[in-house]
What does this fold into?
Amino acid sequence: MSLPYDINADLHCHSTVSDGTLPPTVVAERAHANGVRIWSLTDHDEVGGQLIARETAEELGMQYVPGVEISVTWAGQTVHIVGLQIDPLCPDLIDGLTATRSGRARRARDIGDALAAVGIDGAFEGALRYVGNPDLISRTHFARWMVDEGICDSIGEVFDRYLTQGKPGYVGHRWATLAEAVQWIRQAGGIAVMAHPGRYDYTPMQHDALFDEFKSLGGAAVEVVTGSHTPDQYRRYAEVARHYGLLASRGSDFHGPGEGRVEIGTLPPLPPSLTPVWHDW
Ligand code: AMP
Ligand code: MN
Ligand code: MN
Ligand code: MN
It folds into this structure.
């Protein structure tokens, strides 16, 4: 029995286990309240929330999909690869994620120093107060602190002015390789999904090379309908899914109430002509 293409699936969300503001149980309740039928918690580089997410989802009557979002460096930029239907206990995956997380504390201190150099003191200690998981300090935690301090009006403004490449609080970091991320996901029995490709700033040639490499490594799906895409990008990445023979995924990338453009479980359905990543679940 395959699930319909327009089922309310939300296969990309965050909790306090990474850079979301709500604990996994509350994200599950919110997904359910918004009509989600199949749900995945995909915290950055971390599977610590998977057990409780599954338990809560199943108690509420949702189908649970174990997930993760892995940080990758490809051609000098950060790319995110979502893994769905992973075994969160797979040692290869756990070791890979542990290695991926390991540089975050050092990077966060460096971000603090870089911000201090432009007159923003105490950012590292400030950001730490917003962290739910001490292993996973993210730029988002700096951004929340800076908004609450009145340094900027919104998280988007913090990223634009301070935390993106070329800005004074940006600290380069080398994450996993694309091959590693796809391999860890596949070793854990999962499906590798190219997350929010519309957000990457590659040349057309690099863009094609990224998808060619992803496909040749065994990458199987692409996010078409995501909170990070505009409706024009839904159409563009529907074309990309068809061109590369990739399954299509849908996920809000919800981080918390009032953050980001999209509420959990409220995106439009996938275009009916695509094969959804859940077609055989
Ligand atoms: P990190 O993994 O520490 O580099 O932080 C990446 C996270 O920052 C992403 O997962 C998003 O949650 C958030 N982020 C990145 N760019 C932006 C942006 N322009 N506006 C708001 N949030 C962003
Ligand atoms: Mn995030
Ligand atoms: Mn992402
Ligand atoms: Mn995400």
The first strand starts at residue 9 and ends at 10. The pocket of manganese (II) ion (ligand 4) is lined by residues 12, 14, 69, 253 (CB under 6 Å).
